[in-house]
Specification:
elongated; 15 helices; five-stranded mixed sheet; 3 domains; 457 residues; two-stranded antiparallel sheet; alpha/beta; 44% helix; Nucleotidyltransferase, domain 5
Length: 457
């Protein structure tokens, strides 16, 4: 049976549409914050009506008030009292907030023996910060029944507090969305590029900031895919190895290239779990490492020289070993120039130097996007900015749920890659060389068709 789209689904569609507009991510997140506020308030109203009637949307009740036999089974001890009456559309109401008025669809009821009164929109609720309070309570202060209830009571007064079952229903839906996502099958995803990074948040009382590990990638069609998100106690080898092995256990095909920062635990985990995949050291992180060891007097010149190493626009060389060798020669020239004045900076550059040029084996059109992992780091920055005033999360659940909510919505607006027929053949050839090498087990990693040089691209 065809059902009309619910107000909550309409708002979700508006959130998806924001990211499809191609605007800067920061601007999108501001709009999504407001739409997310509407979504939570709308969900709360729908949950209140469900509790009041004792049945879900489109679930019927018989003439005596008992639930229809076709309705889903509900535990007897948790079954709410079923009241007569039915939903009869919605009435638009305006909620005044500090960020401006917002339109909410308030459900209308017919045939009830008692008058329905929303705790959110009752006559005693006169303050204008209801929306912000509920958003902060739900997404920042813990996604827990007690936190949401207490925050509403603080902001709106005890008469406005939602019931325990209503709050529990809202929070459970948010947690359930993340739980289903993190357990999904990945066997249908084949990645060319896998980006992995972590961001640190304070989650436990008296403990320092702890990492949330994240992975996203570009598949063989050039489309971005948000892969995984998980809290960890540290960025140790074991933590990263468990995270990466979990991706393979859920069916993910190993990528051609892994892009990451230079954490020792992460590097060793990549080598242990994704040993046949090539590894690219994030050049932005490496630049920070190098320039941090230069004096302010020479900082601008050292930074300029660093990025000139990897500027291949003037090199008429196709992506393959020859291009790698040319850039490695530039690394040697940088070292010769700055060794005397900044030996620590040069040592940092030369450390794990082979991983700085792995991206040069891939199609030229992809180079500027696959030589750093900074994209997801910027998105994590948006999450940190939103919770800065809170200080810390009350636990892992709220932290990961907020990060998931931001990244999952942001992922719908991430740009993919252009995969030309030539680039596709190039990548297919690399996949054969890496994962199905010739009997001599010699991996040449050269393009199987002529790839236009970076200059031509």
């Amino acid at each position: 049976m065809h059902h009309r789209v619910s107000p909550t689904e309409t708002i979700r569609g508006e959130i998806d549409a924001v990211f499809a507009e191609g605007r800067p991510l920061a601007d999108c997140l501001e709009d999504v914050a407001r739409l997310g506020a509407r979504l939570i308030i709308q969900s709360a109203l729908e949950a209140e009506v469900e509790e009041f009637l004792g049945r879900a949307r489109y679930q019927r009740a018989d003439a005596t008030g008992a639930e229809d036999s076709q309705a889903p089974d509900v535990a007897e001890e948790a079954a709410p009292a079923v009241r007569p009456g039915h939903r009869n559309g919605h009435r638009e109401v305006t909620v005044k907030t500090t960020s401006g008025p917002m339109k909410i669809k308030k459900p209308k009821l017919r045939g009830t023996t008692e008058k329905f009164a929303s705790r959110l929109f009752g006559a005693t609720v006169t303050r204008t910060n209801a929306l912000e309070s509920l958003v902060i309570a739900s997404f920042v202060r813990g996604l827990s029944t007690r936190d949401v209830t207490n925050t509403l009571a603080e902001a709106l007064g005890s008469d406005a507090a939602l019931s325990k079952s209503t709050v529990s229903s809202i929070c459970q839906n948010i947690r359930g969305e993340y739980d289903s996502w993190r357990q999904r099958d990945l066997s249908g995803i084949t990645l060319d590029y896998l980006f992995i990074d972590a961001s640190h948040f304070r989650m436990h009382p008296g403990a320092p900031a702890e990492p949330v590990l994240a992975a996203w990638g570009i598949d063989t069609d050039g489309k971005p895919v948000f892969i995984a998100l998980e809290a960890a106690g540290s960025e140790s080898h074991d933590a990263w190895a468990d995270f990466l092995q979990g991706l393979l256990d859920r069916g993910l095909t190993p990528p051609l290239l892994v892009i990451s920062d230079g954490g020792a635990g992460l590097i060793s985990a990549c080598e242990a779990v994704l040993g046949r995949s090539l590894r690219q050291r994030c050049l932005i992180h490496k630049c920070r490492n190098v320039t941090s060891k230069a004096s302010r007097h020479d900082l601008a010149e050292v930074k300029k020289d660093f990025w000139e190493i990897f500027d291949t626009a003037e090199l008429d060389i196709a992506p393959a070993q020859r291009l790698v060798d040319a850039v490695q020669a530039r690394i040697d020239a940088f070292a010769a120039k700055w060794e005397k004045n900044y030996p620590a900076a040069v040592k940092t550059l030369l450390m794990d130097r082979s991983s700085l040029t792995s991206y040069l084996r891939f199609p030229s059109l992809h180079h500027k996007r696959i030589r750093h992992s900074n994209f997801i780091e910027r998105t994590f920055g948006e999450t940190r900015r939103r919770v800065k005033v809170i200080g810390r999360f009350p636990g892992e659940t709220s932290c990961v749920s907020l990060a998931f909510a931001v990244l999952d919505r942001a992922a719908t607006g991430w740009r993919g890659f252009t995969v030309t027929p030539t680039a596709l053949r190039h990548l297919e050839g690399m996949r054969r060389d890496l994962f199905h090498p010739a009997p001599a087990d010699v991996i040449h990693l050269a393009p199987h068709d002529h790839e236009p040089s970076a200059k031509a691209a």
